[in-house]
Amino acid sequence: MEQITTTETKTEKAEKKKSIYSLQLQELKDWLQENGEKPFRAEQIFDWLYKKRVADFEDMSNLSKGLREKLANQFQITTLNTVIQQTSSDGTIKFLFELHDGFSIETVLMRHDYGNSVCVTTQVGCRIGCTFCASTLGGLKRHLEAGEIVAQVVKVQKALDESDERVSSVVIMGIGEPFDNYDNMLSFLKIINHEKALNIGARHITVSTSGIVPKIYKFADENMQINFAVSLHAPNTELRTKLMPINKAFKLDDLMKAVRYYIDKTGRRVSFEYGLFGGVNDSTEHAEELADLITDLKCHVNLIPVNYVPERDYVRTPREKIFAFEKTLKNRGINVTIRREHGHDIDAACGQLRAKERKEETR
Ligand code: SAH
What we know:
The protein starts with a strand and ends in a 6-residue tail after the last helix. By secondary structure, it is of the alpha/beta class. It has helices at 25-34, 41-51, 65-74, 146-161, 182-193, 213-222, 237-243, 246-249, 252-266, 284-294, 319-331, 352-357, and strands at residues 2-5, 18-19, 75-76, 81-87, 93-98, 104-112, 115-119, 123-125, 140-143, 167-172, 205-209, 227-231, 270-276, 299-305, 336-338. Helix 4 (146-161) runs parallel beside helix 5. The longest helix is centred in the middle third of the chain and has 16 residues, at 146-161. It binds S-adenosyl-L-homocysteine. S-adenosyl-L-homocysteine is lined by residues 130, 132-133, 173, 177, 208-210, 231, 273, 275, 304, 306-307, 309, 349-350.
């Protein structure tokens, strides 16, 4: 493992300006017009931000000095300071970023044979309270703005620029519940997907939710071609409530109804994440019950061997039992994979690095 602790200059905490990464192309056009500038400059600015990836308005050399000053007075480009950048033996890179107000978030770059995938954070902390998750320790501090989520992808892309590589996919599976910060998350999706911005194809983006039912209906109605994942983790409502208190507010039945609505509306397949917690939800009976629950759905199950979190006392399911669980589902005709682990030596599971490095934030 290689760890770089950087000493980037801290963003001025006192005067926080809006991140320009929060703006859609049209919003930037409107801003230009309101400020006596030509709207077509927006495309040039996007080019500097997302293709050339400059960190300073000063470098936008085809803009007038006046416009560069106006932009700098109103906006900030980089709002994230890299505190830690750890590279794992398998090439996974984990970033701990500090925000303008001193809070910290994590972003992970994972290497797959099909490309480079970035896992982004949507909130500082989380209020969902899943009993196995490190992100929820210390509760929710605040939502991230769209630009703070976009900036994570740009930062990782800049790190990849050094080796001439590209971010090919994005998963919204870092710290936080994306559907609890819905508008910013949606704005983020539209920006990274825009051809004049990072141009990451909708089919290469995945959003995962713990099951905020009303937002699932809303998301289905957006009709975007984004991949959609639901953290299920249990085949019945009693067990799910024990693992995920959100199941008290949005019961499994209602969750499954919303998932069906999503599939009908979009025609897309849903992924279910199912963490295997030793002795809790990993028996053959659980696998059969899970198969009963989802048997007629257009879906895929992703089995996640539990990541050990020191503050939580779940244990791993033994390997043979993981394979047995997989086999039971396969025999029932369910599409299933076991999640490959990335960056095991660098605390790559959600919220682990932050929990370790920023104890005061996660208590
Ligand atoms: N809040 C969203 C996004 C997080 S995605 C959601 O809940 O879907 C991260 C995935 O990892 C979720 O499925 C989450 O439940 C799971 N996870 C969290 N902590 C884990 C742990 N210790 N072991 C295994 N999976 C975990």
